[in-house]
Design goal:
Blueprint lengths: L6 H5 L1 H6 L7 E5 L5 E7 L5 E7 L3 E4 L4 E4 L1 H4 L5
Antiparallel strand pairs: 1-2, 2-3, 4-5
């Protein structure tokens, strides 16, 4: 768990609330501490697949048909 962040809340309670939105196709959480993106994709009425992207990966947002290097999210940041 990340100290001083909302990541735990974003991945649990907040996700549960957003998952109730029928039109929501993907739920994405971007880590502030390291190159990590968690993407949950709706696969059915109450089912979700999870994909975790890390340093060196290309992130794919299926709902937008958009792919990009994870490093681009962190460009210009120290660390």
């Amino acid at each position: 768990m990340c100290h001083g962040s909302t990541q735990g809340f974003d991945l649990s309670t907040k996700f549960d609330d957003y998952a109730k939105i029928v039109a929501l196709e993907e739920y994405v959480v971007i880590s502030q501490d390291r190159q990590r993106v968690e993407c949950r994709r709706r696969t059915g009425a109450n089912t979700w697949d999870m994909m975790v992207y890390q340093e060196g990966d290309r992130v794919w947002l299926q709902s937008l048909d958009l792919a990009f290097a994870i490093a681009s999210l962190y460009q210009g940041l120290d660390g």
